[in-house]
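Weekly structure sync - notes
Attendees: PM, LS, DV (DV joined late)
Agenda: review two folding runs queued last week.

Item 1: First target. Sequence and structure tokens pasted below for the record.
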Amino acid sequence: MTINLNRRTLIAGSLLGAGSLALPRLAFAQGAGTRNLLFVLLRGAADGLSMLAPVGDPGFERLRGAMLGDYESAPRLGSFFAVHPALAEIAKSAQAGEALFVHAAATAYRERSHFDGQNLLETGGTAPYASKDGWLNRLVGMMNEGAPDPLRTLAIAPTVPLALRGNAPVSSYAPSALPDASEDLIARVSQLYAADAELGGLWSRALETRAMAGDDGLRNLNDARATGTLAASLMRGSQGARIGMIELGGWDTHANQRGAFMRQARGLDALIAAYRTGLGDGWADTMVLVATEFGRTARLNGTGGTDHGTAAAALIMGGAVRGGRVIADWPGLAERQLYEGRDLAPTIALENVLAGAVAEHLRIDPARAMSRLFPGRTGAPLAGIVRS
């Protein structure tokens, strides 16, 4: 397959080659017909240059020579990019044409605060803390407009992630080590809330979620594979939630990055693989979006880690995704090409990627999705993500 690597053009290539997890908080919504959408937020600024290494760029060896050996036998996307070996299942999905990467992507944020960067990514605003609700909640609201049934939204987490906060109602679920409540207590609470329109609805949705989760044996969300299976069980079938969100922490690798990134990547890979397996036939109608608040410095620091940077890589997977390729306007890794002399330079807006992906997957007008989910943006949503 021909691969165009000219700068300022799209790069597309087919796949030719071949611990623990600081886990997660999970949230769901319902109302997208039969289509599922799972948004995975990697908190801590995951290193895109490790996730999808530009081994064909001579600057990579100069900046990351200590890590180059990790990619000797790694799956390739064309001759230019290599997928981190810990993302083996994701690489297989790319090989099957069901996963693609978008590289050198970043939100409008250009500073280096995790809190500010995550706030901007989750709210979809034009500046940190300028918006109070999340872009994913606004997406749920769009899907509910004109829908025959009221929207049900579910969070599995101590708190609902900011991306899912807003006017759309949210319930929550989280595995617990505490003893289960007795059926008698549940019946009494149900009776107590029956006449309360707000609490009654919330309680009813909580019981529905409890029934969907079943006896999963989980006492927390520390097992990535089990969490992926749980997510699938809550989004499978006609009664399952249609939109979900998972947060994975632990990507802030200031020191000893090779081992830390390997552990985190293995967890992400296991979670998504279990989710895909658990959905079964539902995978054909599913899209998974993976993004982080910003990237990391291109050059290793003195402790074998990287510091807060700018552009990173996003991942889009799903049964209908036109995968097996990398979308990038590759900026290069020469000194003069780095952003502020230290970071991978951003060349595509992450907001455009997210708006385009969800619009195509959920069959929403892309321009309307862009204006509602990311108000104030003027760029065109990314197109051509889903097979027609």
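Item 2: Second target, run right after the first with the same settings.
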Amino acid sequence: MAEQPVTSLVLVGVGGQGVLLASEIAARAAIAAGFDVKTNEVHGMAQRGGSVIAQVRYGSRVWSPLVEPGTARVLGALESIEALRYHQLLAPDGLAVVSSQVIVPATVSSGQAAYPADAQARLQRVFPRLVYADAVAEARALGDHRAVNLLLLGAMSTALELPMDAWEKAIVQSVKAGHLDLNLRAFRRGRELP
């Protein structure tokens, strides 16, 4: 394989949305395609709906798992405000794939902050290349709203050069057999969103 520069992707959401599973699949797909891979995840208070971020970097040789601001090729967000929280990581020409799902954080439910009513407009201002979709409804139409993470990952995959067989191998390795068909369909449906 010829020398390949490092490609970075970022997944964000809140606890329980499947950010970590999606990042595991992305890392495994990159490994299956023959790349060196480094990952990083932060999920403080994730079980209570706290912010979760996972970073995946792959290339011929990767020295750090941390994505520098302005360098990610693609950012996937399972919750709108989480996309805004981490928008600075995306490259100026990068692709943002954002679910329109709103999950009210504890600071809002406790009255300490307000959820922005203009979240979509803010996303459009910070992301020149934005796919903004009701991914939960798309996943629900496939049979289960919990497949939303694979749906977003499918959309993100269109901005990455990893082959489809590497993605499918990674999904098979990462998802329980009973949920495999749904997750493969969600991933393929996601590839149709951009």
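Discussion on item 2: The CA atoms of residues 139 and 149 lie 9 Å apart.
Action: LS to circulate a short write-up before next sync.
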